Amino acid sequence: GEDVEQSLFLSVREGDSSVINCTYTDSSSTYLYWYKQEPGAGLQLLTYIFSNMDMKQDQRLTVLLNKKDKHLSLRIADTQTGDSAIYFCAETPPTGYKLIFGSGTRLLVRP
Amino acid sequence: TAGITQAPTSQILAAGRSMTLRCTQDMRHNAMYWYRQDLGLGLRLIHYSNTAGTTGKGEVPDGYSVSRANTDDFPLTLASAVPSQTSVYFCASSDGGDHEQYFGPGTRLTVT
Fold first, then answer.
1. Within a 10 A sphere around the Cβ of A55, how many other Cβ atoms?
2. Edge to edge, what strands does the sheet with B4-7 contain?
3. How many CB atoms sit inside 10 A of residue A45's CB?
4. Mean per-residue pLDDT for A46-56?
């Protein structure tokens, strides 16, 4: 079955690194995504990783994928107050373009 | 380009009434989606359409219907609203060759 799980809340101090974790169950997923939702807004794609990759880096963002453990993480370096938002992990099954979302992790960045 | 627009922004609806949530995209994307977002449950797919003229059921389709008469529009209809349909509804679209989904700003619906 398809299921994506995340912890609900993370609080970090400004300037520290944030690590948001996600586990998924569908080992046949082709893509895994991180979306960001700011208050009162829709979701925006932050980054994604192909299932045959272990790591992807994009400026302050680092995505790590452990396929054996079905674990995905998003690391935000030098976290800023503007990074405060809800972060959603999502996977795409191999058939079609539907996304399966986790419940979201609310990141709070303290000054 | 506007991307995806949704209307209304918010609505209070009496139980038993019907309502159509509108979604329009100007990106000529093939696929469109409707999600509902509830606290602690993330986004759940209600219905989707891979191309104009076709629709499919998502994870939570009961109580909702959709149509896709053309590429740009994907309305979501609640035939007889119930309080459990109180939620924030997001429309999204994607191009067949691009896995990114683009989201609208959402419609906040309260069923009383």
1. 10
2. B4-7, B19-25, B76-78, B64-66
3. 15
4. 90
